[in-house]
Amino acid sequence: EVGNNTQRNRFTYSDLCVQVPESKLRPCLLKTLESIFSLMRSYYAIMSFCPEAKNNTSQSASGTSADTGRSHSSAVVNQDDVAATKSDRMPSSVSNPDASTSGTDAPFYQLRKDATKLVAYTFERGRRNLWQLATSRLSVLLACSAVSSTSIYQFLKNYEDLTIFILAGEAFCGFEASEFRQKLKTVCLNYIVTFHRQNIYALKMVLEKESWTIMSAEASQIISLAGLTGDGAALISPTSGSSTLPKDYFRGNSIATNTGRQNNGFASWLNIGNPFSFKLENGSADSPKGNVLFNSSVGNGNNSPFDEENEDLLADFIDEDSQLPSRTLKTKIVKGNTSHWKDGDISSQTGSSLSLLRMMDKYARLMQKLEMVNVELFKGMFQLFGIFYHHIYETFGYQDRSQSGKPLPDSQSFRLKAALSKITQDSDQWIKPQNSLYPSSSSLSIGSTIAQMDVMPTAPPSSMFTSYGLKERCAAAETVSLVARVLNRSRAHLHSVLSQNNTSVVEEFFGTLVDTVPDLAEHIHRTSARMLLHINGYPDKIANAKWEVKELGTDHNGYVDLLLGEFKHYKTRLDHGGISKELQHLLLDYGIESIAEVLVEGLSRVKRCTDEGRALMSLDLQVLINGLQHIVSSNVKPRLQIVETFVKAYYLPETEYVHWARSHPEYSKSQVVGLVNLVATMKGWKRKTRLETIEKIEAAA
After folding, report:
1. Model confidence over 465-474: pLDDT tens digits?
2. How many Å apart are CA 697 and CA 659, to the nearest integer?
3. How far is the C-alpha of 650 from the C-alpha of 682, rounded, in Å?
């Protein structure tokens, strides 16, 4: 009853649980677990009481009889033999009242012995009911909102305590607590939903503020990815209050189904005392560094309990300005993880890539701690990388073609299109701007928890309307490639964390997204080349040139000189762009290929052309090749071979165009159709022949 003398309100247990604040959740949980565990201990002591053991030990030190767990541990009934001894534990006085009358076989003693067996038998049968009643009360407490709003450190501590409680309960009952395990899984999923939503908000904020400048090596070396790469990822060990737990019991949720059938069953838990009493008594002194011992001996041999790699999980929130966990940043190089970093990796980091890697590393650690929901955590990693991937594409892979009457053919690879389609399908709610604060929140199923969360309104990223320089564009392509390299090194480790039944999720992630990062980087560089060249309007200039000439002269068309001038300016921009020589050579090659694409597109739009006009096309191409060869040192002719092949196709017989189109997939359908229409017009094809040829070409495409 809560209230003053004038008004009193009576609350049910469920009503009180709903009102539990976050600050009181852990004390309430520990008190509940302590009370239930004490009840199970008393229940088990009564169930396993034996008069013979009582008489035999009555003459020993009186202090030993106070603790039923320690005084009767040798006489505890083995739960493996419960089924075999049920008939023996039924009261024998009913069938055999004439027992021996000497010593311990006296009628009074025999009656007490039979009564004890009857009580023990009744208690054995009631264990399941007691467990179900206890877990139902605990489930109501775990349904309060404070469970999902607590810090990650507090949640992991609660998860640890609940895991211990489940193991003790399974030993007490003799069967697997599947229902309560499922309840705990649901609690974990609900928490992961909130946790994942917060990380997406943080990542989107970092991306919107990203300047795409390479960070210093010192800042990059602070980051540890031991959880992601598998080099000493920390696993929670028992706290100081539960350090005496049986070693075989503390295995998280990977407990075997026959827990309750181990030797002596619940007796081993009686010997260690109540594991929740110490935590409850020392709750005010609870601290991450004081009670959690992290085992980092896997992989690197470092047994330090306070590894730097665990500090992210101990943070209560993410700092709004830096988007880093709320802890004091130490200018200290992380130990035991330098083998996973290479000089190129460190020098290519940006602020957003560091934030993304930290988040994914945190998810990887949680996958090992919360095994029952590690698939959902991995899907969260999948989605985080997808949002990062899509943001880079939208910011640097989109090209404004408004200067041209018609857009150039889409140069994206099939793998890149498939990756973007997958991201849009899985993360559309996080990518597109939202109009309402919180859309209707439907019930979340376990299979689609990550994909169907509430979303908050997000304005279009400011970077979408910002023209980044060449250096920033190259940094974006380089940093996404870096993240992909780190993920590829973690591939085997992620496979080992997930069960064999979930390997397809890992392969889908790598096959759909990580393996297509080179396609994304290439697309960004090609887009950068087109933007710096300023040649989007040239297809129309080429198409509008005079090709219907009667005599071939020695002069080429004026667009050739304009293209050469654009390419000279392009090379100058690359020389002064602050990028490496390797990237300069790569972008020069992409620039030449962009000119080839523009030439093919422009020539495919020509409406009328004589044989002399086709010869003029070849002359223009040769002049352009010679001019480009004076600007760059590499051989440019192979990269312009696509143009020469297209020009020569003008002289093919009319029956060869369908086969030619099939054998040259590098040309788009519209380009081949434009070529056929031009040839049919200038060579007087029959209308039926032209239509049939175009129909076959479109059907083949």
Report:
1. 346 889 999 9
2. 9
3. 10
DSSP character at residue 30: H
Residue keyed to tokens 């943001």: 391
- Over residues 226-284, the pLDDT tens digits come to 888 776 444 444 444 444 455 444 443 333 334 434 445 788 888 888 888 888 777 54
Burial class (CB in 10 A: 0-12, 13-18, 19+), 138: buried
Whether the pLDDT of residue 31 is over 50: the answer is: yes
Spatial separation of the C-alpha atoms in residues 228 and 367, rounded to whole Å: 10
How far apart (Å, rounded) are the C-alpha atoms in residues 140 and 159?
16
Q: Give this prediction's pTM.
A: 0.77
**Cα distances (angstroms) measured from residue 100 to each of 50, 94, 104, 109:** 19, 15, 9, 10
679 Cβ neighbours under 8 A, 6+ residues apart = 650, 652, 654, 657, 685
Domain residue spans of the chain: 13-48+113-200, 210-216+223-229+345-399+410-429+467-531, 533-635, 652-700
Tokens read off for 187: 């609690």
Token pair belonging to 126: 């009631």
CA dihedral angle for residue 74, residue 80, residue 83, residue 89, rounded to 10 degrees: 0
Burial class (CB in 10 A: 0-12, 13-18, 19+), 237: middle
Task: Mention every residue, 6+ apart, whose C-beta is less than 8 A from residue 333.
Answer: 221, 222
Please report how many Cα atoms fall inside a 13 Å half-sphere around the Cα of residue 172, on the Cβ side: 30
